[in-house]
Amino acid sequence: MPKLRGHHLICLHFFDGEGYDEAFIKNIEDTLRLAEEEDVEISSGADDVCAACLHLKQGRCMQSDSADEAIHEMDAKALVFLGLSVSDKVGWKALQNKVPGIFPQWHSLYCTDCDWRGACEKNRVFIRSG
């Protein structure tokens, strides 16, 4: 059962094959494949996607000095928007059904300044939702 943190429960719906490197991209693809086959367990902190990220050091995001704290805040907000909690198990299809309803708020809070915005804007689901 894949483990995903709060913001990945939303943001991975817009994944379109881009990432830091081939290993990171393959890890996301594998995680998404599993998520579509099994329930997802919600984690607090680094998850299966983070495991292949070059910024993960000792369980923390080190992309910038404030990245880990900002990501934890984003995770918490994602769970509030989705009506979920850490350790919950949820199906990917259920998440797909919830994302459109919360996306306008999510977009206004997080997408404008996100480093991944350019990648997401190429995704037709993101374009339709935004």
Return the structural class. Answer: mainly alpha
Low-confidence stretches: none
Work out the helicity level. Answer: 40-55%
Distance between the termini: 30 Å
Strand order, largest beta sheet: 1-2-5
Give the C-alpha Rg.
14 Å
Percent of residues in beta strands? 5-15%
Order of helices and strands: EHHEEEHEHHH
Helix count, DSSP H or I runs of 4 or more residues: 6
Name the overall outline. globular
- In this structure, how is the largest beta sheet organized? 3 strands, mixed
Give the number of domains: 1
| Strands, count | 5
Mean of the pLDDT scores? 91
Could you give a short description of this structure?
The protein has 130 residues and is mostly helical.
What does this structure look like?
This protein is mainly alpha-helical. Helices cover 52% and strands 10% of the residues. Strands 1-2-5 form a three-stranded mixed β-sheet. β3 (56-57) and β4 form a beta hairpin. It is globular. The chain starts with a strand and ends with a helix.
